[in-house]
UniProtKB/TrEMBL annotation:
Provenance organism: candidate division TA06 bacterium SM23_40
InterPro entries: A-amylase/a-glucTrfase_C, A-amylase/a-glucTrfase_central, Gal_mutarotase_sf_dom, GH-type_carb-bd, GH57_Enzymes, Glyco_hydro/deAcase_b/a-brl, Glyco_hydro_57/38_cen_sf, Glyco_hydro_57_N
Record's protein name: 4-alpha-glucanotransferase
Domain Alpha-amylase/4-alpha-glucanotransferase central: 313-342, 375-416
Keyword set, alphabetical order: Carbohydrate metabolism
Amino acid sequence: MREITFLFGVHCHQPVGNFEYVLRDACRQAYRPFLECLERHPAVRTSLHYSGCLLEWFAANAPDLLDLIRSLVERGQVELISGGFYEPILPVIPRQDAIEQMVLLNRFLTDEFGVTPRGLWLPERVWEPTIPTLARAAGLEYTIVDDTHFLYAGLAPGEIHGHYTTEDEGAVLVVFPIDRQLRYLIPFRVPEETIRYLEGLAGREDVATITMADDGEKFGVWPGTADWVYGKGWLEKFFTLLEESADWLTMITFSESIDRETPRSQLYLPTASYEEMMGWALPAPAQGRYEQLLEELTAEGRDQADRTFIRGGFWRNFLSKYAESNTMHKKMLLVSRKVRELEEVCGRPRSEHQKPSAGRGSGRPREELCRALFEAKRHLLRGQCNCAYWHGVFGGLYLNHLRSAIFTELIRSEHLADRALRGKGPWVEVREVDFDADGQEELLVETGLLNLYLDPADGGTIFEFDYRPARFNLYDTLTRRPEAYHARVRGGGGSPEGGEAGDGGEEGESGEGRRSIHEEIALKEQGLAERLIYDRWRRTSLRNMFLPASTTFEEYAAGEFAEIGDFAGGAYHAAVDREEEGIRVILRRSANAAVGGDAAALSVEKVITVHPSRAALAVDFSVGQRGVASAMRFGVEFNLTLLAGDAGDRYYLFPAHDVTDRTLAGSGSLEEVGQFSVVDEYQGFCLSFGIDPPASVWRFPIETVSLSETGIERTYQGSALFLSWVVANGGGEIWRARLTQGIAPWPS
């Protein structure tokens, strides 16, 4: 039989902020047994990539795994691939940060394993044409992407193998295409099926080298795979078959392939990722149609011939699809600029990564700045970990602990930079900038204790509220919006409710084996269809609205209410008063509305006051109603999160009311509330509200119905609080109210 070369790569990563038990389980179920099996099969040669996040965890919790990797490298069985240390989407972070991410992992691999890496693992295989200049600036020579990228460049499915070259600004990069069929065979079909597929390729005169590279979590972490891969011996059998095929199948590393073989051709790849990601990046209606079209092509047998002309979205679309993702991304860019400003003050080149020594002179101002710079940079880079910025079959953006971890890293980096540049005394600053790149200015109010980001164009709302001492964004909630997979929830599609993907049987769609998580989606509990509630506006805070006085709590919580006028989402005129004692932001909106057949003139003014030395803010409301004969309910909505809705150490305190369920997942309505608090014993702070005059307080949890690798599930995203008053001042007099919010350590 004609010989063929098989390049086998495995990528392993866990996101910044993931739960400790998840990493322990992944290590036990996948990372350790994979390496141990590889050690038993020295003829199986592979290229491995571990993100810096995971390598740091190994160093602290499983150092013997680093020893095992080192031994595999030293005996020439394994090549280590570099990448961004904290697994960022490289093209969407500042160029300096992208290069630093790669250089940081290069140095770790050199220091820990004694190697000089040549390859770049491209997170989520998100390719943009500037990748070659980034990679080569970090000293890397090749990367690995999907055959999807090559199809979009116009190549036919049968001619995508070997390796190619591309360039940007003359920087040449070698690119290996991943074979899609192998990605679906391994490890979900019996090993013999993969060997038969490779034999078929070996029988072709035009194929010399074929590549398979994919997630290491497929080998034990994905649902059902631990028992299949190790319990039932899939990996042991696969490696044995590879060794037994040595007379016609050669296994080498990617670097060896570059050194031995010539590129097939030079070409230019369009922006792309793997096929599934391209679908997830589309808006929900387009995603549904895209997936339907792919199914139709497959049913007609045209999926291979016509895939070149069918493509999904662009990774950056996630930033417009999800406003919350865009907020994180623009926060990251803001913090990167602050770190760069500190770096310029320090006078050190950005490529310098060495931690300052604690020797003589370390107390000098410049030395202190350099120490702050080192720490601020590391937290900034951690805050660029990609997982929380997008959503697909993996929870990502919908996992509140991952979003919170990103904000924690960015706030910590920002606080270090600000403190180094401004000193430890109180300060306050307000900036009018187009923060989110939507063409309209936002207001960023910053002190040494708080960040308050306001969007006058979206109802004069607050979309970020950072408590710096805890490095925590209290308003990091998520809007409930339609997703393409919600059609399956309504239609009852997927495996039986409460089951896991793959529980329906061992056989996948193309033969004996396990189902991939891309093939079946489980519904993890009953009644999810009834929980599909979509929000009219983004779940931000300080959103005002007028409602009919008869509106009930139940109607409001279900989103089944009528707004009078358009104050909730309308644009407010903004002005800023800078005073010695602090900042006043004045937001005003006036509009006409039809109320009970009458033409009413309504107006709202809200004045937000922030002091530099207090972790607090005050909001003064002035409401005008002219020509209104009947009473209306005027209210203000807050959406906040302490991450866990049903945890006993995070709860409401209503001192003048008897509340049975005080958890943040609790719901209900209270009257005449003049003050209450939200306590977080876990993080050690308390958010207190003062209300004058006392108001009705409606509270309920915000829960999304979202997809993760284990199925479609209900996820707590935050808690909604609607504070309202029934007002009747149709004669034109001004009705006023005052709210205060303060944050203090708990217990005080």
